[in-house]
Amino acid sequence: MGMCVDPGVFRWCQALSRSRSCATITTPNSGASKEAFPIFAPTAGRRRGSRNSNEEGSNGGLCRSRRRFCRRQKATINGTDSKAKTVSNYTRSNTISGDAREDTLHCPQSSPLLVSLDNESKRTQKVIDASVRNSDSSLKRLISSFLLVLCFTFGCCTINPPQDAVHITAILGESVVFNCHVDFPGDHPVPYVLQWEKKVSEKGQEIPIFIWYESYPTHSGEGYEGRVSRVPPNSTFGAASLNLTDIRESDQGWYECKVVFLNRPPKQHKNGTWFHLDVHAPPRFSVTPEDIIYVNLGDSIILNCQADGTPTPEILWYKDANPVDPSSTVGIFNDGTELRISTIRHEDIGDYTCIARNGEGQVSHTARVIIAGGAVIMVPPTNQTKLEGEKVQFTCEAKAMPGNVTVRWFREGSPVREVAALETRVTIRKDGSLIINPVSADDSGQYTCEVSNGIGEPQSASAYLNIEYPAKVTFTPTIQYLPFRLAGVVQCYIKANPPLQYVTWTKDKRLLEPYQTKDIVIMNNGSLLFTRVNQNHQGRYTCTPYNAQGTQGSSGHMEVLVRKPPAFTVEPDPLYQRKVGESVEMHCDAQEAEGTSKPAIQWQRRDGQPLQKNRVKINNGNITIENLRRSDFGYYQCVASNEVATIVSATQLVIEGTQPHAPYNLSGSATEFSVTLSWMPGYSGGPDYKQDYTIWYREAGVSEWSTIPVTPSGSTQVTINRLSPGTTYEFQVIGKNALGDGMMSKVITIRTLDAQKAKKPSTTTAAPNEKEFQPAPEGLGPKPGQPRNVTVVEIPNGFLISWQVPLERAHLVQFYTIKYRTDAQWKTLNRGQIRPEETSYLVKNLVGGRTYYFRVLANSLKSYETSEEIKFPVPARVKHKAITAGVVGGILFFIVAIILSICAVKICNKRKRRKQEKEIIRLQNSTW
Fold it and tell me: Which stretch of DSSP H or E encloses residue 372?
């Protein structure tokens, strides 16, 4: 509560000012202190509800409040126009001495208010009216003028709210009345100002929310417009009471009623009251979980439920109408706002309800946890092997919530219904199963089922279908040619699954025994290879293939004719040397033998790279390459072929005046702190160019490379020192000549030895025997494509490893090799080479309970390409079978041994008896 008094009581207020450290006001034209007007500040002990408060501390709070009040009015006045300003350009000085503090406001002499400070309230009222008449009619200017007068005529105090202040509780959205009475001096009504303020911070800062003065418009603070009003005079509440409507949660806090009289004796009872408003609000959710939550078993989820309200709501969790019981996988965290389930189990599925409640009410929200969001494949398809003509069925059982599961089947990536060969034989059942009836040899391949219910990403699972059939001849050429005095082949076009076992041949209706015939060999694919053809090899041949399923019959008769091969009449030079930008023309021509067709001539690069058609022209066997580049460097082949044979003539094209080519065959060995590298030099760019090398290396996983020049110049071996032990490094080499840097070599990876293993150097050449299977080194020539779809299937007599031939460069395959490991070392599984037409291998001695890793290698003449690594855990029961067989075998051996021992004993006894009988007979005869 604050009050202001008549400034006429000068001496009393002056003494009070000295004793209570209250402020004085001095007119600017009176010198240092011509006339001072004390501002009376009643102590907190006179305020309602704070009878024992410290008087001096209260006066200090009063003065601080007055200074804040005046500063607010200064800011308000400075915002008005020149006509509305009644006081301007005032300054302020503070003097502090001991416990006494004096605030002096200096106002211009021309201010009409200073002249009337010692007059009675009526004259003051006239000054206010005059100021208002000279100002704009806006509320802001009116209140500013009036409050400035109050700044000079009375003091306003701010104290901490008393502990026994009036406490009021209201519900959000309702209305409340703060009951504040007005005690007039001597019970005689006099003019007064009503001001309501709210405490907005712990430091005591207050903002006016309502100001009323008779005959002037009321002022409502920001956020209180239209919600605060003075109660009617005829109500049962005090005349200074305030009505607050549409209560908000932000309205909670301390409020003070201040009644200020313009002429009031200082010893009269003071007016003012403190109120505390508690705003209660029923709970309302600010964060809730989704209504339906789809999960998979084993997932982790967090249900978040947050609510606002006053008092702060309490959060309770229920599952299926029962309180949630925390466990090792279920917990409630963050003051109950989070329900966490770390591993979803079947018993965790259900309805979860969070309830927010306080004294004003409660709200609830329910979330349903369901298995699962997207469709989940419960029973995937498995690899199957069928005989041609049988029926095959792949299962694909899926569950989902919602349960509108759609199942689609694909063969090698294409929908099965769009594969023409399967169109009339394929059926997809309602349970998702795929049926092919009957199966044919061409149906072998990978089949994939894809399930979806429109939620999340579709799931898929694959299986491989292996169709077995007797070996059969797919094509019989009526005539085949053999080149005289060269090597030639008589083809038997065979298809077999299981793989081909052997082929029988007849010549001129007689069985041909190739193994007993000179210059004839049966190849792995069953064809006949004649190492040197002569006229006796001409005749009529047939072939009959066999596999584990038997044979589908012999081929037709093939007439084999011996003819002379074509011969080159013009061959390219062994070497062509050209500079960058020039052109080269290489000549080639061939002639056919009598009775054969003219050979076709083609040019190709020996490394298999395509020719640049926009710069290459071929005319009558001659090839021209224009605008030569460094990439044109290499070996070229002229190929002449007809029905009898194919002959090849090779040449080398060297491009001079280029940067060096990439070094190749980079290899290295490591010690604890160093790596020694060696390589083969790439073409230097011409005989006039000298080539130097630079090593680029870095630690694996590091982005930046370090470089080391190789010395002496031209050396193809270098040692990099000061490396860290047990660390993996990457290396590559680049050549450089006078024209600039060349091409980088392939990157190789080498690991330095650990400190305890530094005695024995390691190299990078043992690729197939290391845990991480290394690809074939570069520079060994072209290699086949990658074997595909490697599978391991358990069959009654062992385990069948099957694969598909490469999609690319399958003609380069000379044989297959199977590698396996159960630990870090790769080993070869097959004893002999697997022929290129064979795509499976039977192994019987896998150990039960172990996990095997397999790779299939497609080998060319000098290089190889590996398939993807597959993992196959051997069932433990296989081991049990082996143990059982061993035990049974041991028992049988023991029984046989016993029987043989008994028999041996009987035979020996019988022989002994016979010997004894003979001895007796001999003795008897001698006696006689």
Answer: none
Cβ–Cβ < 8 Å for 28, 137: no
Cβ atoms of residues 434 and 462 within 8 Å: no
Q: How far is Cα 626 from Cα 65, in angstroms, rounded to an integer?
A: 97
Confidence category of residue 389, pLDDT binned at 50, 70, 90: very high
> Which residues fall within 8 angstroms of residue 927, CB to CB, at 6 or more apart?
none
Calculate the CA 165 to chain-centre distance.
Answer: 60
Q: Is 608 left (phi over 0), alpha (psi -120 to 50) or beta?
A: left
What are 153-163's pLDDT values in tens digits? 443 333 455 65
DSSP letter for 441, please. Answer: G
The per-residue pLDDT for range 702-729, each reduced to its tens digit, is 889 999 999 888 889 999 998 999 999 9
Residue in 633, 568, 588 with CA at minimum distance from that of residue 607: 633
Helix (H, G, I), strand (E, B) or coil at 170: strand
Using CA atoms, how far apart are residues 450 and 408, in angstroms rounded to an integer? 5
d(CA 318, CA 253): 35
Residue with the two structure tokens 């630079």: 694
- Each residue's pLDDT tens digit, 527-579: 999 999 999 999 999 999 999 999 999 999 999 999 999 999 999 999 999 99
* Residue 297, both tokens: 């078993």
Please state the φ and ψ torsions of residue 48, each to the nearest 5 degrees. Answer: -65, 130
Q: Please state whether beta strands 414-415 and 426-428 pair in parallel, antiparallel, or not at all (unpaired).
A: unpaired
Contact yes or no for 547/498 (Cβ under 8 A):
yes
Alpha carbon distance 15, 230 (integer Å): 38
List, as one string, the DSSP characters of 390-416: --EEE--EEE-SS---EEEEEETTEEG
Residues in contact with 232: Cβ distance below 8 Å, sequence separation at least 6, in sequence order: none
Write the DSSP assignment of 853-912 as a string of letters. Answer: EEEEEEE-SS-EEE---EEEEPPHHHHHHHHHHHHHHHHHHHHHHHHHHHHHHHHHHHHH
Fill in the DSSP letter of residue 551: B
Tokens of 712: 């002496």
The three-class DSSP label of residue 125 is helix
Q: Which residue has the tokens 């199963």?
A: 433
User: Three-state SS for 249?
Assistant: helix
Query: In degrees to the nearest 10, what's the CA dihedral of 222, 226, 229, 232?
Result: 170
SS3 state of residue 517: coil
Give 127-132 contacts, CB < 8 A, sequence gap 24+. Answer: 131/84, 131/86, 132/216
Which string of DSSP letters, residue by residue, matches 658-708? SPPPPPEEEEEEE-SS-EEEEEEPPP-SSTT---EEEEEEEETT-SS-EEE
CA gap 552, 471 in Å, rounded: 6
**Dihedral of alpha carbons 285, 290, 292, 295, sign:** negative
Sequence-distant (≥ 6) Cβ neighbours of residue 426 within 8 angstroms: 409, 416, 417, 419, 434, 435, 436
In angstroms, the Cα distances linking 671 to 668, 719, 755, 766, 795 are: 10, 10, 9, 16, 48
**477 class by beta-carbon count within 10 Å (0-12 exposed, 13-18 middle, 19+ buried):** middle
Element (H, E) at 803: strand 798-804
Radius of gyration of the chain (CA): 54
621 φ/ψ sector (left φ>0, alpha ψ -120 to 50, else beta): left
CB neighbour list of residue 629: distance below 8 Å, 6 or more residues apart: 580, 655
The tokens for 730 are 């990457």
Q: What is the largest CA-CA distance in the chain?
A: 189
Distance set, CA 750 to CA 22, 671, 676, 747, 775 (Å): 88, 10, 10, 10, 14
